[in-house]
Structures are given as structure tokens and as C-alpha cells.
Write a structure and sequence with these properties.
By secondary structure, this protein is mainly α. It has a single domain, classed as Growth Hormone, Chain: A. 75% of the residues lie in helices and 0% in strands. It contains 8 helices and no strands. It has helices at residues 9-15, 26-54, 58-83, 90-122, 127-156, 163-194, 197-221, 251-279. Helix 2 packs across helix 3 and helix 2 (26-54) packs antiparallel against helix 7. It starts with 8 loop residues before the first helix and ends with a helix.
Length: 282
Amino acid sequence: MTVQTAYSSAERAELRGLPDSHGRVLPWLIVLFIGSGCSALIYEVVWLQSLQLVVGSSAVSLGVLLGTYMGGMCLGSLLLPRAVSANRHPLRVYALLELGIGLCGVLLLFGLPGVNRLYALHLGHGSPDILMRGVVSAVCLLPPTVLMGATLPAIARWVRATPQGVSWLGFFYGGNIAGAVLGCLLAGFYLLRVHDRAVATFAAAALNVAVALPALLLAWQIPHRPSTEDQGPVVAEHPCIERPVGTPRPIATYVVIALSGFCALGAEVVWTHVLSLLLGGT
């Protein structure tokens, strides 16, 4: 005999890992993440071309870009939970991050060529000078990449730490990757091929604004109630959800994931170098 329990709409949403009845917003957030990923990869392709003008070597410039890009995103994901209170509306925080990314992208459009002119006037052309140019360029790229890395943790506060809620993070990440693929194709085959870096940068910044405005509108219309998971120890809120308290960190899992990322980014540098020999350094 099956016993059925009647839940209110808020209770059903909470069991699915959504705060109250805000689950209807989540598909729209996936769309916003597609736009966010598209703009991020347009920036990456543009910055790669800019770094080639500053550093001069495609392998070195790609290494600087990827190292700074992934390092900045790592810092952003680590710093946001410590720097931004969980009481802040996640969608408002996300919108401000997107606006900050767009502002940094426009500033870098004019800033990186200035770095090249500065070093052309005061330094030579040896390996130490190229290394110094790479370090300065990496420092310039850190602010927008840190903001990029903070976007997913900001949106993650919109769902609860339940199996169903966490599954939405996979959809967010998948939408972000789909947008990244679109951004690569758009930048490589149209924006930089038909236009120039300025047009590509302004297109990416326009995408940031187009993503931020709906997020601000949703934040204004839908209030945010911080969940207890963001403010204290993890405690199961429902009988059907068992989450042990004080579980040790899976260090081995972190090491394996780090090695996977190391191999993936190393392969990207090698494959880019090989493709540049076959297709040309475009």
C-alpha cells in the first residue's frame, strides 16, 4: 500500500533543492549562463591575440593566458564565499560580476597595447624581458578572470545542497560550456575574421550587459531567503536526505581532479601549437 503525502508548492520545491517556489527561474539562469560562457571565450580568443602582440611567442602567450585564466577562475571560486555574504541576493551578485567582467574586458582592450609600448621603450627583447611581459600581462588578466570564476559559486547559492539541487549545477555548467563553444566559433570565424579585436571585445561586453540586466530584474522581482547550508554546519532538513556532518575532505579526489586539469590544459597548449603549424597562427 502506497502512502502519499501532500506537500505545498514551497515544500515540493524545497525537496527538489530549490529555495521556495523559485525553481521556475532556473531554466532562465541556464540561458544566462550560455551567454556568460559565450562572452568569456570571446574574451579568451581576443586576449590570446593581444598577448601574442605583447609577448611575441604563441606558445608563451598561450601558456600565460591559460595559466592566468584558470588560476583566476580558481581564485574567484575560492574568494567569493569568503568575501560576499550569503545574505546578498545571488542573482544581484551574479549581475554585478557580469558587469565587472564587461568593464575589465573593455579596459584591457586599451591596456594591453599600452603594456607593449611601455616595454618596447624601456626593455630589450631577450628571454627575461619576455618573461617580465608575461608576468605583467598575467596581472592585467587576473581581475576579469577572478570575476569569471566567482559567477558559478554565486549562482550556486540559488539552489540547496541536496542531490536534486546540486544536479542543477551540472545544467549551469553544461550551459556555460555550450556558450563557450559558441563563443569560440563566433570569435574565430566571424568577429576576428571579419572585424577586429575592438568589435569582438565590445560584442562580449554587450553580452555581459545582456546577461546582467535580466539577472538584476529577477533579483528585484524575487526575494532571496538564505538557506541554512550557507550559514552553518550542514544538517539534513528532510528525512529523505541524509548528509553526514563532519565528513573528512576527499583529498585524493582533489588530487585526481587537479591532475586531470593539468593534463587537459597541457594538451590544449600542445594541440594549439600543432594546429598552428597546420592551419597557420590565426
